[in-house]
């Protein structure tokens, strides 16, 4: 098997290390405690679609860059309106729920184990302020946390991944991008980073045409694979 020589790990945060839908559902239910699952899911989808479309418009040049906080406030306003809530304080609290996302069960221990061998960088589409809240709430520990706000862009714009290259001082091929989103890994590949897909209940699974360097069932599995001599990779599972 080919060897994978890397010097640092770069982690996506939303979806990969924290359960974004769970945190947003909690915020929506706090907005309207009478909501059941059937009432919550359409509101969650409304939020997610607004964020996706907002970021896409910025990537396509159809809207000037705004940080994730702005998109979260817009999404919260849409969700509150759909739920029939017009209290500004409640809308603001809902927007802040995007910073209160629970970690996956293996996240904290997995990061701690990997940090024993590699420098760890977080690389998130969340704003600097939101990323600070996310890190604190979920107990994420980094050597460096980078926000796409510093590039005034959103992944998969190459300038976001370039932040990790610049801060690490390493060639792209010495960095391993870890994400639960195939689109994110494809973006990293275009800049020359190595890639590791970590399966999560949410995210964007690989397609048959994807070829990532590592495929892991979780952070423990990723650490196990990187513990092999020189981080030998498994055969790509497409």
Element layout with pairings:
Blueprint: E1 8-11, H1 20-31, H2 37-59, H3 68-83, H4 88-96, H5 107-115, E2 120-124, H6 128-138, E3 144-147, H7 158-168, E4 175-179, H8 182-190, E5 194-198, E6 214-216, H9 219-226
Parallel strand pairs: 1-2, 1-4, 2-3, 4-5, 5-6
Number of strands: 6
Q: What is the percentage of strand-forming residues?
A: 5-15%
What's the Cα radius of gyration?
18 Å
Gap between N and C termini, in Å? 16 Å
Spans of at least 5 consecutive residues with low confidence: 230-238
Shape: globular
Q: How are the strands of the biggest sheet laid out side by side?
A: 3-2-1-4-5-6
Helix content: 40-55%
Largest sheet: 6 strands, parallel
Tell me, rounded to a whole number, the average pLDDT. Answer: 94
Order of SSEs = EHHHHHEHEHEHEEH
Question: Given the helix and strand composition, which structural class is it?
Answer: alpha/beta
Put simply, the count of helices is 9
Q: What structural keywords apply?
A:
238 residues, 6 strands, 6-stranded parallel sheet, globular, disordered C terminus, alpha/beta
């Amino acid at each position: 098997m080919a060897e994978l020589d890397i010097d640092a790990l770069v982690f996506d945060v939303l979806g990969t290390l924290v359960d974004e839908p769970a945190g947003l559902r909690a915020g929506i239910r706090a907005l309207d405690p009478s909501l059941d699952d059937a009432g919550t899911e359409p509101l969650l989808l409304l939020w997610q679609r607004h964020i996706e479309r907002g970021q896409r418009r910025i990537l396509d040049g159809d809207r000037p860059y705004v940080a994730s906080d702005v998109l979260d406030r817009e999404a919260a306003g849409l969700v509150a309106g759909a739920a029939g809530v017009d209290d500004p304080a409640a809308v603001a609290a809902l927007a802040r729920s995007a910073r209160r996302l629970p970690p996956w069960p293996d996240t904290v221990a997995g990061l701690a184990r990997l940090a024993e061998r590699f420098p760890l960088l977080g690389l998130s589409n969340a704003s600097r302020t939101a990323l600070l809240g996310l890190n604190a709430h979920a107990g994420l520990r980094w050597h460096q946390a980078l926000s796409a706000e510093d590039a005034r862009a959103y992944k998969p714009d190459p300038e976001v991944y370039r932040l990790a290259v610049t801060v690490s001082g390493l060639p792209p091929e010495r960095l391993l991008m870890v994400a639960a989103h195939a689109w994110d890994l494809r973006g990293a590949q275009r800049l020359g980073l190595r890639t590791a897909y970590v399966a999560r209940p949410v995210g964007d699974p690989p397609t048959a045409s994807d070829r990532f360097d590592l495929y892991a069932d979780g952070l423990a599995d990723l650490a196990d694979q990187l513990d092999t001599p020189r981080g030998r990779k498994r055969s790509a599972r497409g």
